[in-house]
Amino acid sequence: MKRSRKYQELAKQVDRANLYESADALALAKKTATSKFDETIEVHIKTGCDGRHAEQQVRGAVVLPHGTGKAVKVLVFAKGVKLDEAQAAGADHVGGEELIPKIQNDGWLDFDVVVATPDMMGVVGRLGRVLGPKGLMPNPKAGTVTMDVTKAINDIKAGKIEYRLDKANIIHVPIGKASFTEEQLADNFQSLMDAVIKARPSALKGQYIRSCTVASTMGPGVRINVASLAK
To answer: Residue 231 has what pLDDT?
Structure first.
């Protein structure tokens, strides 16, 4: 993959042979975010899990203390008083069965997170082929299938992010923006790592976190010393 000259110049600031402590890695990721837009700072965690086995799946959610720096649009599937509750809590879109054709046939996806009450999952399940591949299906482990829609919406708006293994058993998570202070990024990073480490599958043998890299949207990856994170 051919990289731009600008990327190559930025990459020279990173010692590819070095494993950085998390604070130094975050500072470097922030420093190499030089685009005109406010780049996202992302963490990529390679695990020793095999997600093909249900007992080795890693999935959950955590509220980042300083949020992600992104305004998140929330869609809530509910009915009755829960519809009113969702609207009062600040959901961007609320509805029920009438939204199915809009999403399924019209390709409407003007939302970042989907929350559903348990009694609506039969309806939402019909959207599995659309929402599933995009990681938008509500899930109890992520706190997005719940009767407490107010708490779910408040948490999401406050900076709750979901983490899960991809097909390569890697977790990809945004932890803020390049405009954040190093302290804010460090707080968010630590909250994420605490949650991921706690979610280690009991069935896993051997090393859990094999590598951890932090990078800005357009910047080079900076590898973190995982020995200082978890065994």
So the answer is: 44
- Output DSSP code: residue 30: H
CA distance 39 to 44: 16
The mean pLDDT of the chain is 91
* List of the chain residues with pLDDT < 70: 1-4, 6-11, 230-231
Q: Are 50 and 58 in contact (CB under 8 A)?
A: no
**Residue 33 burial (CB < 10 Å; 0-12/13-18/19+)?**
buried
Longest distance between any two alpha carbons in the chain, whole Å: 58
CA distance to 16, 45, 171, per residue, from 211 (Å):
13, 6, 11
Could you tell me which residues come within 8 angstroms of residue 167 by beta carbon, excluding any fewer than 6 positions away?
A: 51
Return the percentage of the chain with pLDDT > 90, whole number: 77
